[in-house]
Amino acid sequence: MRTLFYTIKQSFIQFGRNFNMSIISIFAITCMMMILSLFFILAINVNAAAETVKGEYDSIELFLLDETSEEDAQVMIDDMKKQEGVADAYYKTKDEAMAEFKERWGENGYLLDSLEDNPLPNSVVIQIADLEKADALAERASSYEGVEDVKYYKGTVDKLLRATRFIQISAVIIMIFLIIVSIIIVSNTIKLTVFNRSDEISIMKYVGATNWFIRGPFLVEGIIIGVISAAIAVGVTAFAYDKLVDAVGDQVYSMLSMPMVPGDFLIYNFAWIFVALGVAVGSCGSIISMRRFLNA
Amino acid sequence: MIVFENVTKRYKSNVALDNVSVKINKGDFVFLVGPSGAGKSTFIKLILKEIKADKGTVKVKDIDVTKLSARGVPKLRRNIGIVFQDFRLLPKKTVYENVAFAMEIIHKPRKLIKKDVPQVLTMMGILDKANKYPDELSAGEQQRVAIARAIVNKPRILIADEPTGNLDPNTAWEIMQLLNDLNQHGITILMVTHAKDIVDKMGKRVIAIEDGKIVRDEFGMYGYQEALAAGNESAFDTISVNRRRTIKRRFRRGGGR
Ligand SMILES: Nc1ncnc2c1ncn2[C@@H]1O[C@H](COP(=O)(O)OP(=O)(O)O)[C@@H](O)[C@H]1O
Ligand SMILES: [Mg+2]
């Protein structure tokens, strides 16, 4: 208990003695973390977008000729359900299709009322469980008697998923790079404090203080730097992102028909990730800086 | 108390200690003498496990130092007090705080600290200096503080690496009296020194090392021309440039007053 108190007190004293350097490194790490959080937010939004895309395009729709009966369709459904990679298959009447259409058009749905005949075909919808199998399934479906057209977006989905994966991987690489840079900054700052206290440390070692007792204050000092930086970065980014969603969220939605991940959701769920990251960066940084000094 | 059995220590190809066996008993007062570069500091560092022996065993009390894990090192060092030529006090702490520090960092209860620190300062005759800072003290007083710090945790062994090297003869002699008192109280003392006068006058056990080997172990005399090992310029010719720098630095640092 007293040790803990000593450790925390000592770490603040060190932080104070090394104030300018501490502030500079907090500033630098805050910048790193802000850039990092941008990539983080980007990755999350892209991820959410990818999920939306997958959800929307994971089906094959077989448009049927008018003369194809529901019994014929049922044969197709039974056949499809036997195939691997099919989650579900069902019959969709032209009326159901029209109802969906109207719903999607929303306020403008009344325009469709002016149509005398329903121009939409009956169809069979196949939900795909495994996108890898989609090609083969589409091929098989188009060979059925009574199918006019097969609507299927695998190409688009693939391209989108590839793009999102690329963005995510790049984001992760950049984030790792930024984390490493932050760790180096912390370790250099702590190294300076270790240097300033090297006399004290050598005496502590001669008297028989345990290594962890000696390391404690440096560890906490690093953690303080990491956490303060993370907190500032999260605060600033969250505020900015919230404003951004307010400003352009609707446009993004109408342009890409994908919602941005809402700001408060992001803050509540990811503030702690960043604080944990701050702790990790701070402790790694100080452990690295102390390694050479404190062994033996 | 301290036992070396066939201990060898090399720095790369340079043999610092060569198959050394020696036994220092409980309650002994031992001078460790020899020219610069003989291996005296290496001897001490092995006891403290600052460095590892390449061969042989070092035992301190019932602890096998050579087999000790990194975790065990603090426990070993709590049995040993150490005093250096350059005092190594913390300049921003008062005398009292410097001594209390040694207790605080091994988690001694506050009550005990309040009781023991004044006691040991009294023993060293510097209680009236408790609230002064090291740079307000004479060299002799600083060394007393360093000794107070070394013994405040009641170690059974005190190692002193040239403790009188920065002191004038009278002050040096006072410090020797203090060490002798501590020895009378049962503390085993191992002192590295180049001070011929002191060794000769004290008439204690003298272990002489040369080129990493123990060449003499007997009661009595220093056995060297003082100039050969001490810090005066004429002796520098016989010792390494490195060592010269160290001595000069030490003189500048500690010997200014
Ligand atoms: N860290 C080191 N690296 C390489 N050689 C060393 C090191 N420390 C000591 N030595 C060498 O080991 C020998 C013994 O040194 P040391 O024990 O310091 O002697 P002393 O304390 O008697 O002057 C010397 O030749 C010295 O140059
Ligand atoms: Mg030496």
Number of domains of chain A: 2
Q: How many beta-strand runs of chain B?
A: 10
Which structural class should the secondary elements of chain A be placed in?
Answer: alpha+beta
Strand content of chain A: 5-15%
Runs of chain A in which pLDDT lies below 50 for 5 or more consecutive residues are none
How much of the sequence lies in strands of chain B comes to 15-25%
State the share of residues found in helices of chain B, binned by percent: 25-40%
Q: How would the global form of chain B be characterised?
A: globular
CATH superfamily of one domain in chain B: P-loop containing nucleotide triphosphate hydrolases
Greatest chain-chain contact = A-B, 18 and 23 residues
Write out the strand line-up for the largest beta sheet of chain A, numbering strands in chain order. Answer: 2-3-1-4
- In the CATH hierarchy, the third-tier topology of one domain in chain B is known as Rossmann fold
Overall pLDDT of chain B, averaged?
87
List the uncertain runs of chain B: 227-248, 250-257
**Using only CA atoms, what is the Rg of chain A?**
30 Å
Query: What does the largest sheet of chain A look like?
Result: 4 strands, antiparallel
Hetero ligands: adenosine-5'-diphosphate, magnesium ion
Number of helices of chain B: 9
Through-space gap between termini of chain A? 27 Å
SS elements, strand count of chain A: 4
At a glance:
Chain A is built from 10 helices and 4 strands; from the N terminus they run ααβαβααβαβαααα. Chain A has helices at residues 2-17, 19-56, 70-82, 94-105, 110-113, 134-142, 154-196, 198-207, 211-256, 263-294, and strands at 59-64, 86-92, 123-128, 147-151.
